[in-house]
Amino acid sequence: MSSTVLDRTWIWHPSFQETRQDTAGLFVHFRRTINIPSSPLPDTLPIHITADTRYRLYVNGSFVAFGPVKGDQHMWFYDEVDIAPYLKPGENLIAVVVLRFFYATQYAPSLARLPSGGLRIVVPDHAGQDWVKKLHSSAEWETAVDHWTTLRVDEPEDRFLHVYERLSGGGELEWEWESAKELEFRVSTGNSTPWHLCPRMIPEMRVEKTTFCAIHNLKGGIEKDDWEAALLGQGPLCLPPESVHQLDLEFESYTTAFVGLVFGSQAEGEKESTLTLTYAESYEDKPVDVPDIRRKGMRRDCTKSLYGPKDIYEMKGISVQDSCWYNPDSESRTVIRPFHWRSFRFMRLRIEVGSHSLALHRLTIDKVNYPLDVLAEIDVNFDDSDTDSSSDEANQAQALFTTSIRTLLNCMHDSYEDCPFYEQLQYAMDVRSSALFTYYLSGDDRLARQAIVQLRNSFQARIGLTLSRSPTHRPQVIPHFSLFWVLTVYDHLLFFGDRLFTKQCVPIVESVLAFFEDAVDPELGLVRLYDGPGVWNFIDWVPQWKPHGVNPVVSESGVSTYTNNLYAYTLARVAEIMETLGLPHRAEENTAKARAIIQAIRKQCFNGEFFTDTITAATAATAPLSQHAQVWSVLSGAATGPLAVDILRRSLAKDNDNPFIQTSTAMSFYTARALSLVSPTSNSDDLYTTTFNPFWTPWLTQLNLDLTTWREDAVSERSDCHAWGCVPIYEFLAEVAGLRPLEPGWKVICFAPRVGLYNSFRARVPFYTEGGVGIAGVEWMAGEGGIQLTLGFTWAERQKEREMARGARPVVSVVVRLPGREDVRVDGVSEVRVTV
């Protein structure tokens, strides 16, 4: 019988309790002093660090790292951090602040956690045993709980994040330090620690300095120039005793950032004052229903007010006794720094000064995002920009493109996020489009790969579906979202050709399909929705389907045309997966199942003119029809040829008499895909071309309202930043430039530019190859002899040093698809030139 083996690499506070009702969690501090002789410092000193739930690492008062990447019980990530650059001869102060969300609550659903809190610091073997003794997490570390800083559960603007802070207390509050407790976990005979540790799958976040661009609504009697100078760190601003000050800071664009304010420490002024930070996406009228139903107009209309979540700090509750562990200049400064990054376009500062004066030294804003290397570019009408119309077209196209990039970046951190301001949850439907936008901008699949794995790991065997979102502390099931996850797996295979990775997902892909197959009504041949507890059959956010985005006629009949179309569409994509993986029999099975569902849709859900939202027999003559049923019937193949063109043309008509329930921003990507499907090549009168400019009206309306990112929807206007609105990225690069992978890993590239949309056009489109990331350069210009069209290939700049080993330019196979011509395939080329 094997002996018991224990893991003692985790430590925690010995008397930490998760019983308080006034907070979503607490901050637990850890510290250790290490002495380094005057001998040479190490060139590198990597440590492996993680914590449940989040940590911030400081060395000698300098901020070093924030983590870990969001994980869950299936994969808990750790970071490798090199602390050598922060060390010095003599005494070194190492500190870690851990944000621990309580386990037995529903707060902070975007941050999964396990039943016990913990901190783990391990020095890899190659770093030397002496450093193991000095740094390894053990009872040699001291720990203290901050009982006075709470994570607000009383903020009406916040139902999801619970990262907003309140610091309160009377007098100088001292932390009680004691030795940390080593946690013991049996790791023999099939047992393990609760955290299944994995190295991070994505690069560290990009952090960049930024600042405000304007000050509005100043109150308190101090000049704007004086505030500006102090906030920018150009000199302290002394705020008189018993005074109250308020000002709004505007930022050039929507921002996700770490925020800090630095105050002086003279006279105890900072110990008797209150600072309130309000974060907002826009100026607006008083919301109808906080936080969900807003009344927004011009986003920069500072005659209105700012509504949003608040951090509240009673500075009389700040102790400076331990600040040297967290701030390099702590002897003369007090730093207020919310633990987690914040989202905002505007920030309101309100300072109520106590009985002594208060000195403000500076504001720090450190913008944080996933480090996406944006390689894609577009240039519209570059040869005739002297005309007003072409110049307007060019400006509009560039604004659509750059605003989409900005929106996507603000929804990318250590996971994809639906919206950074409210939820920060990684939903499967959102991930599919966000991942495609990422591929086209950069050829980077690291965040997408992580998302695919996390959603795969969320599979619920009791139901047969993945969760709608992952990682999460609050499980939720939306059956349609499991199909969108399957489509994301398909996309990744098509764009990167990683068959091994795809094979790892196949068992869950087939289990998801089995859920829908088991739900097929044998008489109708259609899926009946499962409407049991814990399942939400969400379709889209449209006014007619309030409050939960579910079509009422579908709820009554149990059969959804949208569901069956999405299922058939997914079956066809899975057939392609199986064919690529060398499983032709399973491909044929899925193709046959897709055809059967399509036949049933045509028979049961088509009234002879349009597709109804449920079976036609259960549809009242006066029941409204939806664009959703038409769009997805085209995508699935239930509607083809002239019928497909007709139902799209009529249902998407831009007129006030259009009776169809309209797709929202969330579904706009799929509306565009249906338009593309019925217009495979570019003609002046094809449906994609004729609807292209009108299609962007809702986006241009947002730009006219001074948005710098795309809003969540036009119904509630809850959030001003949501990545599913970034459709222009795909349309300009996949459709206008006309570049799509025809075979997995871009082995064969389809080149079908929509030359009828612009007189001249240039684009750079990154694409993955086995040799690295290539750049496809597309350019055309209309002239007397026709349209001169060029497609050329180069390597991305970041890989030029490897060009000699691979050849100066990528050599690829291209299928050229142009209007009025047969497809032409050319192999082994680095450039294609055509006159149209």
From TrEMBL:
SUPFAM superfamilies: Galactose-binding domain-like, Six-hairpin glycosidases. It comes from the Eukaryota. InterPro entries: 6-hairpin_glycosidase_sf (IPR008928), 6hp_glycosidase-like_sf (IPR012341), Bac_rhamnosid6H (IPR035396), Galactose-bd-like_sf (IPR008979). Gene3D superfamilies: 1.50.10.10, Galactose-binding domain-like, Maltose phosphorylase, domain 3. One of its GO terms (molecular function) is catalytic activity. GO terms for biological process: carbohydrate metabolic process. Residues 397-724 form the Alpha-L-rhamnosidase six-hairpin glycosidase domain. PANTHER family: B, PUTATIVE (AFU_ORTHOLOGUE AFUA_7G05040)-RELATED, C, PUTATIVE (AFU_ORTHOLOGUE AFUA_3G02880)-RELATED. This is Alpha-L-rhamnosidase six-hairpin glycosidase domain-containing protein. It comes from Aspergillus mulundensis.
